[in-house]
Each structure stands twice: as C-alpha cells, then as structure tokens.
Amino acid sequence: MTGVVLIFGVSGFVGGHLAEEFCSFGYKVYGCDISESSDIADQVTFIPCDILDQVQVRKVISETKPMYIVDLAAISSVSYSWKEPAKTMAVNVEGTLNIFESAKEIIPNAKILVIGSSEEYQRSDDPINEEFSLDSCSPYGLSKITQERFAKLYREQYGMKIYCVRAFNHTGVGQSDRFVIPSWCRQVALLSAKKKRMAISL
Ligand SMILES: NC(=O)c1ccc[n+]([C@@H]2O[C@H](COP(=O)([O-])OP(=O)(O)OC[C@H]3O[C@@H](n4cnc5c(N)ncnc54)[C@H](O)[C@@H]3O)[C@@H](O)[C@H]2O)c1
Fold first, then answer.
1. Ligand 1 center to residue 145 CA distance, Å?
2. Cα dihedral 70/96/174/194 (nearest 10)
C-alpha cells in the first residue's frame, strides 16, 4: 500500500475525481463529508463528518491516522458566499482550523493540502502571476485568504507540513449546475432536446 489519505469534502466535484485518482495509485482512501455522494468510488471508505464539529474531526483523524490530508470541504460558490458570508468564513476558516488543530495533536508530520482560489487575487484585466497582490472582492475570496494565512501561521509556529494552492476555475463531469459552465451545458442540452430557440440565462 502506498499510504493513507483522508479527503474532507469527498462528495464534491473535485473530491470524487481525486479519490478515484488516489485509489488508482494504490492509496487507502478515507473520505469525509456532510453528505455521501453516490459517485464516490467503491474503494473509498466514507465517514460522515462535519468539519465545523471539532469532536467529529478529531475522531476521524485519530481513527484513520492519515499520512496525507486534502481539505476540499468548503463553501465553494462565490455567489453563495454573498448570501452566507458568516457561514462561508465558518466552514472555510474555522472548519480548516479544526483540521489543523487535530492534525497538530495526533499526526503532526502528516502533509496537508489546502485549496485556495484565484479569487484571492486583486481583480485585474492583465495576466497575473503568484506574486500578484492578494485583495479579494468577495466573502469567498476573503475566507480563502484567511485560510491561507492560518496555514502559514501553523507552518511557522508548529512546523506543520501544510501546502496551499490557489486554484483557478476548473470544471468537468460531476460539477453542480450551481456553477456557470455546467449551468450553460444543462440549458443547452435542454434546449436542444426540446428543439427550441431561447435565451440562455446566467
Ligand atoms: N471547482 C473549482 O473551479 C475551484 C476553483 C478554485 C478553488 N476551488 C476549491 O477547491 C475545493 C473543492 O472544490 P469543489 O469544486 O469540489 O467544491 P464542491 O462545492 O463541489 O465540494 C465541496 C464539498 O464540501 C462539502 N462541505 C461543505 N461544508 C462542509 C462541512 N461543514 N463539513 C464537511 N464537508 C462540507 C460539501 O458537501 C461538498 O461536497 C474547495 O475548497 C473550493 O473552494 C474549487
């Protein structure tokens, strides 16, 4: 066996694909989420867990003792983050801190991957690189900046192996039609099935 991986947010769009990829390389994969998806690969052991519940997070980490943790659990929609800014900060920051705190106590040498976003960067019409200023224009982006700052703090203060990426939009099979590209695809498919001419809404 290659190692043990624990994925928080396994029922989401990225979670299903990532879990399958880890399984195909021989990892033992545990996946957590607030709801179970039928799309998760059979080899994945699903454990219900709300990352806002510190007791549940500690229990799952101490029972699985992963070498690798991937934190995909999030409020991931920018538009939803405007409706629920406090919940967005709670899940994306407090939830991630619950993972850091438990990992610090139980598996301090585990590697943890945290997924930030291009939404952390200041708006720009020009191409940007990693050095570009962070200054978000949405509650979602602010939550991701804060999450990343805490990751840096825990690396510096406790020597934890926490890695951050700032992912740009990605899409594909299994993404919810709450997001723009799957929404357009669904509308085009519906229109072509009905053979109607209609405007596509955003
Ligand atoms: N998909 C993209 O284009 C994109 C771009 C940049 C960053 N990201 C980030 O990548 C990560 C994964 O994105 P995704 O597209 O799979 O998102 P997604 O919304 O499809 O999945 C997020 C998952 O987190 C779960 N979740 C929410 N609250 C939870 C809680 N309290 N406890 C446990 N689980 C909870 C949800 O049930 C869902 O299954 C997120 O952090 C997202 O912000 C995604």
1. 16
2. -170
* Integer Cα distance of 72 and 185 in angstroms: 24
Structure tokens at 151: 């990751």
Q: In angstroms, rounded to a whole number, what is the distance separating the alpha carbons of residues 139 and 119?
A: 10
Cα 140 from Cα 163, distance rounded (Å)? 19
Torsion angle of C-alpha atoms 41, 148, 145, 40, degrees rounded to 10: 0
Residue from 8, 76, 114 whose mutation best tests the ligand 1 pocket (most atoms within 8 A of CB): 76
Beta strands in 60-144 (DSSP E): 68-71, 111-117
pTM: 0.94
Integer Cα distance of 36 and 140 in angstroms: 24
* Residue to mutate, 10, 14, 165, ligand 1, most ligand atoms under 8 Å from C-beta: 14
42 exposure class (CB count in 10 Å sphere: 0-12, 13-18, 19+):
exposed
Indicate the DSSP class of residue 77.
-
Residues of the chain with pLDDT below 70 are 1
